[in-house]
Write a structure and sequence with these properties.
This protein has about 140 residues and is mostly beta strands. About 10% of the residues lie in helices and about 40% in strands. It contains 2 helices and 10 strands. Strands 1, 2, 3, 4, 5, 6, 7, 8, 9 and 10 form a 10-stranded antiparallel sheet that branches. The longest helix has 11 residues, at about 1-10. The protein is globular and about 35 Å long.
Length: about 140
């Protein structure tokens, strides 16, 4: 799947948060994921999602949070799952006009640290302490 190949190439050249890459089943992904600031991304089994001020990675921007609805898809390689989200046209951005920012953020990669499941993506300038957007599952 193109999603997995694109995500794999971009993420492997930068250090991820602590954890082991993991392949997750769609049922494991279909839950509500929460970021460090309380933003949520609820992935539904029908391939749709609802986001509420969830951290995303778009281009070089730091600290973006988006709210809205859209669709998600899972890709994977032999070691790791990736989740791509595509927001509907009527979602809200934290600080940017919709016509200036793409509606498709970078894909999240799956990690496991002990019993904790995470989705993560690198955000912002690579020279800025390698920041990450990390989502955890409540079942973790």
């Amino acid at each position: 799947m193109a999603l997995a190949l694109t995500a794999c190439g971009r993420l492997m050249d930068r250090p991820p948060p602590v954890g082991e890459p993991v392949v997750l089943k769609p049922a494991e992904l279909a839950t509500t994921w929460t970021d460090a600031d309380g933003g949520t991304l609820t992935l539904k089994q029908d391939g749709t999602f609802i986001a509420d001020k969830v951290c995303v990675a778009v281009s070089w921007y730091d600290g973006l949070t988006w709210s809205g609805t859209g669709t998600w898809e899972q890709g994977s390689n032999k070691k790791q799952s990736f989740v791509g989200v595509s927001f509907d046209a009527d979602h809200s951005f934290d600080a940017y006009h919709p016509e200036k920012v793409e509606r498709r953020p970078e894909p999240y990669a799956a990690l496991r640290q002990g019993k904790v499941l995470m989705l993560w993506v690198r955000v912002g300038d690579p020279d800025n302490d390698d920041p990450h957007c990390i989502l955890t599952s409540p079942a973790s």
